[in-house]
Amino acid sequence: MFKRPIIPLVIFLFLGILFYFNQNFPPIRFIAGVVQGIFATPKTLIYSLKAGGGSDSLQIKKLKRENEALTKKLIDYGRTKRDNEALRSQFETSVGPQYKLMPARVLGFSGNFASPDSLVIDRGSNNGVQPGAAVVFKNYLVGKIDKVTPFYSRVFLSVSENFITVARTVDGSAHGIARGNGDFILFDRVSIKDTIPAGSIIVTKGDVDTTGLGIPPDLIIGKIASVNHNPSLPFQTAKIESNEVLSRLETVFIVLGF
Amino acid sequence: MNPKNILFILLPFALLFDGSLISIPMVFIIAVLLYILSPTNLTVLISFLAGLVIDILRVQNFITPLALVVTFILILFYRRAFEIKGYKIIILMLIISSFVYGKLSGYSGGLW
């Protein structure tokens, strides 16, 4: 050991501070890209060991598929109903735009093992991914992209405390904000006059910019588990439980825009 | 087999498993243990590089190298100040620093 071991440590401390404050420096991004490229395949394989655990029996899988199909029909019914109302009122059209989707593999996670709050996916800025893009799986909202590097991106899941979006019940009887709360999602800032039926499905209301970047409408966030209704307060809240499958996904889709 | 060699071998596996299969800061813990057993400049360099790699793979700010170096400095100061060669307090420092680092880096709510 050198006589003054503190000197190398101080040098590394300065280097660490340099790296911390210059993350977007091109040479650092280049090195990050190389490292991510090398580790992409092995991390995907290792993550699939974690995601593949807890597989259901055939009967349960069949029931889950039927449940998903019925939920989709319920949302389509809601959209058709709104279309009819819009056409009758002649004020607006609610024909949904076609979004561009990009598949991405999940490489890693952060947070609780059973219920992570963020995922790492193998698509980044080199693939056209931007922060704020929604990540979906079938009709479910998985989360929102928070940080983008050359080949990887981090997705905050809907249960993450960093996640927030506008939401409503599928029949439109209640509007509010869905924010992550660790293990569940909180349906917050719902007017006390609105009705939140227990068991109703909560979908996104839509929060996209002119290029289509953001969270599209009518994506399933979860189902109401319980309602906290106090008539003396101006707002009520409800607990939303998301689909447990979302924490074990191996492939997701990034909404790139129109 | 020498514990240091075992930890050096475990470090690349920790880079693969950390954040993909397990939700504890394996890289951080192994790096600090390495420094406790072998406080050389090579250990600091390898730990720093491992910290950079794990932050690149977890898509987060480069907090791990900073956390590691700060922990190493604290361990060095403690050893110098008290001239103790025992490991009890240092292992306690490892546990506390792992908890703090895990909380700052978004690991499973404090190692559970």
Cα-atom Rg of chain B, whole angstroms?
13 Å
Arrangement of strands in the largest sheet of chain A: 1-2-5-4-3-14
Largest sheet of chain B: none
Overall shape of chain A: it is: globular
- Write down the overall mean pLDDT of chain B: 88
- List low-confidence stretches of chain B: none
Q: Report how far the terminal alpha carbons of chain A are from each other.
A: 60 Å
Indicate the mean pLDDT of chain A: 87
* Count of strand segments of chain B: 0
Spans of chain A of at least 5 consecutive residues whose pLDDT stays below 50 are none
Give the topology string of chain B: H per helix, E per strand.
HHHHH
Instruction: Tell me the helix content of chain A.
Output: 25-40%
Largest sheet of chain A at a glance?
6 strands, antiparallel, barrel
Describe the structure.
- Chain A has 258 residues and is α+β, with helices and mostly antiparallel strands.
- Chain A is built from three helices and 14 strands.
- In chain A, the strands form three sheets. Chain A has a six-stranded antiparallel barrel.
- Chain A is globular.
- The mean pLDDT of chain A is 87.
- Chain B has 112 residues and is mainly α.
- The N and C termini of chain B lie far apart (30 Å).
- At the A-B interface, helix 1, helix 2, strand 1 and strand 2 of A face helix 1, helix 3 and helix 4 of B.
